[in-house]
Amino acid sequence: MRIVLVGPPGAGKGTQAAYLAKNLAIPHISTGDLFRANISQGTDLGKKAKAFMDAGELVPDEVTIGMARDRMNQPDATGGFLLDGFPRNVSQAEALDEALKEDGVTLDAVLDLEVPEEEVVKRIAGRRICRNDSSHVFHVSYSAPKQEGVCDVCGGELYQRDDDSEATVRKRLEVYHTQTEPIIDYYKAQDLVVTIPALGKVEEVTERAMAALQGGK
């Protein structure tokens, strides 16, 4: 299956992408991984992307699309793939459609992870990270430390990252609504969108998504 995963920040896209890709036996292709791989390998596209990033500029769509297309044409993706974080806007979605058309394939589904906005704010703004080890992550509501502000694992100080503040989260949501959310209507016109309620345990959300994919829209 060839799938695009969309949803607001905090919807759990990365987690669901990993589970779904494993269950469907297809590669999980994320924009972040594409950039890191191309830059570390020194590909032509990676060099172009790095030049823009070093200059503090946005990487042009054609570079991102080129990376995605190269990855989708790798042998492990011949039977399908799951795109996470791409496309981010309608112009990228149109370019993706054109690239897939040229390669003689089409998307099978667009999974829209639906989470209420206030829940997104609560999920992200409630995160606390250990200063000693960023892999030690807590949440003031869902997985609170035994002692407020202190890491259960190593005793380090817990803090809120700047990009996890409520103001920053709401700004990220504005960007999502303005730039990325319109691709849902774009794909609805192609009858590809499957909306998945993303509240609940991770396994429950995965089960809903798998059931929707297997049972059709």
TrEMBL record:
<feature type="binding site">
    <location>
        <begin position="85"/>
        <end position="88"/>
    </location>
    <ligand>
        <name>AMP</name>
    </ligand>
</feature>
<keyword id="KW-0545">Nucleotide biosynthesis</keyword>
<feature type="binding site">
    <location>
        <position position="161"/>
    </location>
    <ligand>
        <name>AMP</name>
    </ligand>
</feature>
<dbReference type="InterPro" id="IPR006259">
    <property type="entry name" value="Adenyl_kin_sub"/>
</dbReference>
<protein>
    <recommendedName>
        <fullName>Adenylate kinase</fullName>
        <ecNumber>2.7.4.3</ecNumber>
    </recommendedName>
</protein>
<feature type="binding site">
    <location>
        <begin position="137"/>
        <end position="138"/>
    </location>
    <ligand>
        <name>ATP</name>
    </ligand>
</feature>
<keyword id="KW-0418">Kinase</keyword>
<feature type="binding site">
    <location>
        <position position="172"/>
    </location>
    <ligand>
        <name>AMP</name>
    </ligand>
</feature>
<feature type="binding site">
    <location>
        <begin position="57"/>
        <end position="59"/>
    </location>
    <ligand>
        <name>AMP</name>
    </ligand>
</feature>
<keyword id="KW-0067">ATP-binding</keyword>
<feature type="binding site">
    <location>
        <begin position="10"/>
        <end position="15"/>
    </location>
    <ligand>
        <name>ATP</name>
    </ligand>
</feature>
<comment type="subunit">
    <text>Monomer.</text>
</comment>
<comment type="similarity">
    <text>Belongs to the adenylate kinase family.</text>
</comment>
<feature type="binding site">
    <location>
        <position position="127"/>
    </location>
    <ligand>
        <name>ATP</name>
    </ligand>
</feature>
<dbReference type="GO" id="GO:0004017">
    <property type="term" value="F:AMP kinase activity"/>
</dbReference>
<keyword id="KW-0963">Cytoplasm</keyword>
<dbReference type="InterPro" id="IPR033690">
    <property type="entry name" value="Adenylat_kinase_CS"/>
</dbReference>
<feature type="domain" description="Adenylate kinase active site lid">
    <location>
        <begin position="127"/>
        <end position="163"/>
    </location>
</feature>
<feature type="binding site">
    <location>
        <position position="36"/>
    </location>
    <ligand>
        <name>AMP</name>
    </ligand>
</feature>
<keyword id="KW-0547">Nucleotide-binding</keyword>
<feature type="region of interest" description="NMP">
    <location>
        <begin position="30"/>
        <end position="59"/>
    </location>
</feature>
<dbReference type="InterPro" id="IPR000850">
    <property type="entry name" value="Adenylat/UMP-CMP_kin"/>
</dbReference>
<dbReference type="InterPro" id="IPR027417">
    <property type="entry name" value="P-loop_NTPase"/>
</dbReference>
<feature type="binding site">
    <location>
        <position position="200"/>
    </location>
    <ligand>
        <name>ATP</name>
    </ligand>
</feature>
<comment type="function">
    <text>Catalyzes the reversible transfer of the terminal phosphate group between ATP and AMP. Plays an important role in cellular energy homeostasis and in adenine nucleotide metabolism.</text>
</comment>
<dbReference type="Pfam" id="PF05191">
    <property type="entry name" value="ADK_lid"/>
</dbReference>
<feature type="binding site">
    <location>
        <position position="92"/>
    </location>
    <ligand>
        <name>AMP</name>
    </ligand>
</feature>
<dbReference type="Pfam" id="PF00406">
    <property type="entry name" value="ADK"/>
</dbReference>
<dbReference type="InterPro" id="IPR007862">
    <property type="entry name" value="Adenylate_kinase_lid-dom"/>
</dbReference>
<keyword id="KW-0808">Transferase</keyword>
<feature type="binding site">
    <location>
        <position position="31"/>
    </location>
    <ligand>
        <name>AMP</name>
    </ligand>
</feature>
<dbReference type="InterPro" id="IPR036193">
    <property type="entry name" value="ADK_active_lid_dom_sf"/>
</dbReference>
<comment type="pathway">
    <text>Purine metabolism; AMP biosynthesis via salvage pathway; AMP from ADP: step 1/1.</text>
</comment>
